[in-house]
Amino acid sequence: MNPRFWTVKTKFSVAFSSLALLTMVVALLALQALSEANQNLVHFVDGINARATLAEKVRTAVDRRAIAVRNLVLVTSPADLEKEKGALTSAHADVKAWLTELQAAAESTEAAADARNLVTSIADVERRYGPVATDIVALALQNKKDVAVRKMNDECRPLLAELTETTRQYSELTRARSRQMIEQAAQAYVYRRNMLIAASMVAIFLAVLMGWLIARGLTRSLGAEPAQLGDVAQQIAQGNLSPELLRHQAPEGSVQASLNAMLQSLASVVHEVRKNADGIAGGSTEIANGNADLSQRTEQQASALQETAASMEQLSTTVRQNADNAKQVNQLALGASQVATKGGGSVQEVVNAMQDISESSRQIGEIVGVIDGIAFQTNILALNAAVEAARAGEQGKGFAVVAGEVRNLAQRSAQAAREIKQLIATSTTRVKQGTELADQAGATMAQVLQSIQRVTDLMGEISSASDEQSAGVAQVGKAVSQMDQVTQQNAALVEESAAAAASLRTQAQQLVQAVSIFQLGGQAAQPASTPPLSQPTVQARNPAPAKAALPARQAARPVLRPVSPVSPAHKQAQAQEQDDWVSF
């Protein structure tokens, strides 16, 4: 991948990772040098220096013991003898102890072979020197000082000199080894120092190189100094989009070039937004004014529909009353028809009774005729009996009287029969007249019954038509109520639309104000002047007289909010549209 196309994050990551790696290498080298120096120091302190110290302690203890042996030979007082004897014992114990530690150190550490040989020599001389010193001490304690002095001069001094020489050689050896280790440490220090200096120089060179490369890459990527870019961004944030901010020498693909492109694009967008915002503000104002006027007319239409609904309710009530009256009249007509039917039946019964009476009168007349005939025959018989009685003379005188009485009775019966016949004839004539009148009354009642039946049918049709008319008026009232509700809803929607248009107008004005902070070509964008929003006055609707009977419907209707009056300028601007809105 070409480093030119690396991101800033990648460049800084690579640079600091490289610096961290170089620092780690230098630190590792330093740690290694310190570790080696520490190991050399530990080796010196725990090895050569410790053994040299033990050798010096052994030599010191040997000297103390030799002095104690000499003093034992020279002193004479018992107290001094005891004192020197104690010093001898202590020195001899120290020699043994320090020599043992020296031998152990020479065997356990990485001591050289010559050093171990010298330690072995010291131990061998000590092993030979110990018995001699003991014998000298014993001779001194036995007060054989001359023998002790000779033994000390002959045997002890050579061994002591040999022991001293051996310890001196060991000391010289340890000092030589110490100097050698110091020289090695100095050489290692110089080598590590030069390596660290070289590594540090390389790290500094690489750090400077990478810093220069990153700075050059960032400068090319930015296209200008960060302060200049910040100034341009601050100017853009303050709304200055003038072409003077453009830097035409910015490298391609740099932040400055992108800022130039963004500035040009933003200036074009702001110009278009400002122009469109002005149009939106004007259009939203017209929409808001139109919606306000529509709201007013919708309110008027809603008021007219409420009054129409009230009138339809009154008409429906009147039609229902007419239908109820028609039903009552129909019921009365049905009752009259039933009564007329019963009257016709009664007249028919009267006619039948009159016919029966006429028949009975005829029969009575016939019977009276028979009686009249019988009376006539009886009268003839009585007359014949009277004639015969007259012929009989005195014998027939009583029979003549009876016959006269019978004749009288026959005449009276005939007279009564004639009167009855006359009465029956008169009654028959009247019965006949009554029958004719009854027939006429029956025909009249039949005509009345037909008329009543026709009236009943007509009233049934009127009642049915009134019911249908009442149902139709109810449906019309329901439809008008629904239209009223829909109109109320439309009015609410128109008000909401007017509110939304007003909100749109406000937002458009806010957008114009927001865009006005930008400066295009050195001049600030002026907010477009929008005509004031006019809202019509919604008059409080006076309820129709019939609305008192409809409290539930009035309570169910939504209450419409009044708005501010319509401006005269807006009324003049919309005078040409009045006809269309009235037709709506």
Automatic annotation (TrEMBL):
Domain (Methyl-accepting transducer) spans: 276-505
Alphabetical keyword list: Membrane, Methylation, Receptor, Transducer, Transmembrane, Transmembrane helix
Q: What is its main location?
A: membrane
Q: Where is this region: Disordered?
A: 524-584
The protein's matches in Gene3D superfamilies, at most eight in alphabetical order, are given as: Methyl-accepting chemotaxis protein
Among its keywords, does the record have Membrane?
yes
Q: Does the keyword Transmembrane apply?
A: yes
Q: Which CDD domains match?
A: MCP_signal
Matches recorded under InterPro entries: Chemotax_Me-accpt_rcpt, HlyB_4HB_MCP, MCP_chemotaxis, MCPsignal_dom
Family that this chain belongs to = Belongs to the methyl-accepting chemotaxis (MCP) protein family.
Q: What is this protein called?
A: Methyl-accepting chemotaxis protein-1, serine sensor receptor
Specify the species: Delftia lacustris
**Lineage, broadest ranks:** Bacteria, Pseudomonadati, Pseudomonadota, Betaproteobacteria, Burkholderiales
